[in-house]
From TrEMBL, chains A, B, C, D:
The keyword NADP applies. Belongs to the chorismate synthase family. This is Chorismate synthase. Its EC number is 4.2.3.5. Keywords: Amino-acid biosynthesis, Aromatic amino acid biosynthesis, FAD, Flavoprotein, FMN, Lyase, NADP. It comes from Pyrobaculum ferrireducens. The gene is aroC. GO terms for cellular component: cytosol.
């Protein structure tokens, strides 16, 4: 339901225009250094406040750690983080009360929850709820850092513009110094232009991202039903607007012969390794010590200003919806940060499952306060 | 680990050349009619014995229902099905003992399980293990039939040949009367030719399939982390060789504007409906009463006769592998049947979670024996 | 870990002297009426503020519902409730930093979490954390009320004084009008006197309680490992200080012959029933439509003013602990309310698992706001 | 449902007079030595074939390991064990088809499963199904042995006769050389006499057992809802006929003052320890390095030869049941072995959860076959 993970386990709650969003993070061993700053940094990354026209209502999140952390370290108990919703402008949504927005969760939620759900700002289905996931991802990243694992992603497609050329994991990390994390400068310029135009038209665009995890040790993942690939796929499709996923070289592999698709096995620095890594670091659902990577595509934001056909729920008659609220021209940048978080959470979960971190005792054990 | 599902729950076991494969199916209410014939039909569909050159070692599976079924009905207790392995020819595999096959689980399993795992025939990582999933899928399909839900899939791409033109769900079901379930006759001919050529060359091909579920009632799926989309993605990526997934219109949506991508909401026969169904029957992770569909791509079978670079594990030195065993020229046909099964299991699970089937009492309650 | 339940699922968090306690309640269908008053009533019942000498620091809890409820009804989304900790007097605990209190979780937490856990007021192990469970129990009771199920308990033993005579479920419910819920007036007087004396001596007492659930429909519970009995036992032993449990007639059954212990089966008002109910409403782990009841015993509060032998953790040398903080002379009254809550949560969970409540649609479906 | 455990996870299946019983054991790392003999020894211990009048139909179980074990070691994959049912004499049960046996699961199963369940020999509710649990317990004990943990139990009460005097863990283990595992010779003689008499009368008796786990490391158990105490309570109440449980000193603690009940904390051999161990090795739900122990009571076998009141299900009229089948005069001896198994499984699960055993690699890693 609203819980993800087996040993590193998050439970999220909250509606977009309700009192607060939040997450309870369970399973973290005692003694992991964690500060408000660690959480804030990830929440800020998600906001892209520096591109003000992309996100007109941009303000840093206000959050509190309610439990599980003391004197800058985890206690081993559940970490609850609450992100307060600001006085949101909900009046936009009054008109939508009886007009489900095409492409949104509105219709599905109406059928499942009747008129009891909070539709304002997308309610529980809002992309905004991924802020809670991102907060949890900050903790997962800290835990992974102890194991030498690093997770980062970038945008590879936006509104049809695709990134060209090759790049390294360092390029991916450095791309975050740009307005949008895009390794290819030419593509970035085209994307920004395209976003501006879509905003002006009252329309929205989709796109794709790629997430890498490097330093992942071999032996993570559980066949048959706890495969790294399968659980990362579930993690990815938990994020709103995801429509496609390629693992490793992905769909291109389906057009290759077996003799082309297989990654030769070699010895590198005394260890078994893959010569290429079309497999995305996973064979048989289990990591082999190579970087893990996958790509995910998102549909365009369903909220657009253009008139759309919908139904008046009271009269059960066709009507036209003209949305006047604020919306993100593309979900892709924020969703990328959420996807990084979900990847980090999934890998942290598998590291705990595999026993890489002891939990019968703290990470470190100082006696002095 | 080897368990999937929350209320309709399957636990699989077995290695390809071990004593047996099997599955325990838990959560089925009492009183569901089920016969050995129901199981056999699905197991037979998976074998494609009618294309003998595709699957040279083809024989019907021998299986037993060990528990949970009596007098042609479920008892409400766990249903254990065991599929006996025949005297497999394992000698092919002796040479592979120290030579992990590129593209296979061998390398990952060696790193995780050391030399304790059974590598013969792919062992636990073999596509053959999906026979157990297919047996469970037969039970799930019987339960879904009670709710008016039908699941079926077809091949949409093989070795680069793609199906053209439009088709209906009836076309999809009828395609199973052909040698391979392909709605487009021209594509089918090209695919068969291509398979034959690959077999002759000692190589293999990948491809793609599409699975439909029709009659799915609205309101199934649990945001945030039990979304239908997310759990079907996990289900799909649990099947060996899956490399990509498109939900609904999939990656094409990422290139559309929001005004193009959204499915207009209409009233049809007195009910809320979608004018188009690019969303694949799901909004916000919850079904809306439209058909559910998604596409999945598979890499080519990693086993090929062509020489491949690998490592001698004893000497940790490069070596060449020349595989001489039998192999499937493409995993796609069998994997499609496994994917149908996983889709049926996932939907049956969600039907139980949502309370569509009572389990405090039997489906029907005759007193006479 | 900190999550309980499969379909009605609670996740708790919080330390006794931290920022807040709380709970996320997941799985509740949309449309269940729930008010702050419903929560407050249960939280107040737990406090026993009317016996001021029993609980010297008594003040009503301050709590907020952060999500999942709108306009007095559940939304179908997770319900997060946060209970703010007041400025607690933590100075008592400074001296305890290196002196684990005998009988408390201190020693175990020190071994597991090192000096990272919050020991103040018992931290995560405090009985106070059951306030979050009680808040969740209020929601479970509301859901059970829709099914005609009622849960209530009473004290049957305190400091060695045992309740005498027979009583009905109505007597149990009415006992809550007394200072302590004890059906036997004479026993109550003796218990109150005994509590006063123990308080004066700086000591504490244990005791026992009984919880009833009436109106439980037949057919709840899942053999083998989801037996009602087994899950209620787990629920009960999750509450701090529980040391024993009797199901139905309990240990007395172990001394009977089979011919005495079996409850004869009869027809009552056209339905199958038990003539007696030594079985506590459950056979083979499944409810039969008779009242469910069980008894639970608690050890005395480990915090006492009397000097106790412990170890100085810095020096690893014996030392004497003289606890000066406030403590509950007995955990029994508060723990009883927590036990009622856990019983309600467990039964609500089983009602959902068995499909007694649909969750593909709301409980009721008004269109008007 | 029929699955127990999170990281060491068992799934059982099978009816008493069906084709077979069995269990799938998941989560065991690769490289654990395990032989058929290990399984057989535990299955034999459960049978008590040496007391032929206790168990007239006694024969050793026939079982097969279907998967997960190769060359005497675990593979890291699920271990499926099937125990074949012999040609059972089911004719006894024909008359019971419409006459639910008082005290048995019959009534509950009829209400939940209608007439679809297999009532013969108790079907899925039979104590015989614990044979599958015992097989899994054999594997858990092997894993625990690697960590220096040993589990053993003994009978402390039978038909009202209670064991007197003190004893050590060695006494407990040695008691298995006697006809029944009873440390007190006088009590044993009385118990055997009493069993004989009950058998002659066609009646049955209940009793109690105690289970010890020594060598349990500190730091196992997860507050709030994965407490060792809570999960062992659930484990115990999963076994048929359990009616009561005392943890540590149990109900006696409820009559003590806090100053008496607390175990003083001391330093022993350089480690923190408890002077006494009334706490049963657990504080706050977490182990402290002291022996874990608890006691469990069982009701008498519900099957007795004496006439009993029941209902004819077809006519819904009162009738008399005179059971003529074979039955165990007491469930206690067999149930004790099942309880040991459940305790071992629970502790093995917690050892894995806490990361005491790595699962990203095998226990040992020989390259040679």
């Amino acid at each position: 339901m609203n819980t993800f993970g087996r040993e590193f386990r998050i439970t999220t709650f909250g509606e977009s225009h309700g009192r607060a969003l939040g997450v309870v993070i369970d399973g973290v061993p005692a003694g992991l250094p964690i500060s408000e700053e660690d959480i804030r940094r990830e929440l800020d990354r998600r906001m892209f406040c520096h591109i003000h026209w992309l996100n007109p209502r941009c303000e840093p999140e206000e959050f509190e750690i309610l439990s599980g952390v003391k004197d800058g370290h985890t206690q081993g108990t559940p970490i609850a983080i609450v992100i307060w919703n600001k006085k949101a402008i909900s009046s936009y949504y009054d008109e939508l009360w009886l007009k489900p927005r095409p492409g949104h969760a509105d219709l599905a939620y109406y059928l499942k929850y009747g008129k009891f759900y909070d539709h304002r700002g997308g309610g529980r289905a809002s992309g905004r709820t991924t802020a809670a996931v991102v907060a949890a991802g900050a903790v997962a990243k800290k835990l992974l850092a102890q194991l030498g694992v690093e997770v980062a992603g970038h945008i590879i497609e936006l509104g049809g513009v695709e990134v060209k050329g090759s790049y390294t994991f360092d390029d991916v990390k450095k791309s975050w110094e740009k307005p949008l994390p895009v390794v290819d400068g030419e593509a970035l310029a085209a994307m920004l232009e395209l976003l501006r135009r879509a905003a002006a038209e009252g329309d929205s665009v989709g796109g794709g991202v790629e997430v890498w995890a490097v330093g992942v040790p071999p032996g993570l993942g559980e066949p048959h039903f706890g495969k790294i690939k399968a659980e990362l796929a579930m993690a990815a499709f938990s994020i709103p607007a995801v429509v496609a996923l390629d693992w490793g070289a992905g769909r291109a592999l389906a057009k290759m012969k077996g003799s082309e698709a297989n990654d030769p096995i070699i010895v590198k620095e005394g260890r078994l390794a893959l010569e290429s890594n079309k497999a995305g670091g996973v064979l048989g659902g289990v990591t082999v010590g190579e970087p893990v990577y996958f790509r995910v595509w998102f549909k365009p934001t369903p909220s657009v200003r253009k008139p759309q056909k919908t139904v008046d729920l009271a009269k059960m008659e066709p009507t036209i919806l003209e949305f006047k609220g604020r919306y993100d021209v593309s979900v892709v940048p924020k969703a990328l940060v959420a996807l990084e978080a979900m990847a980090a959470i999934t890998l942290a979960d598998h590291a705990l499952r595999a026993g890489l971190v002891r939990r019968d005792k703290p990470l470190r054990d100082p006696i002095a306060r």
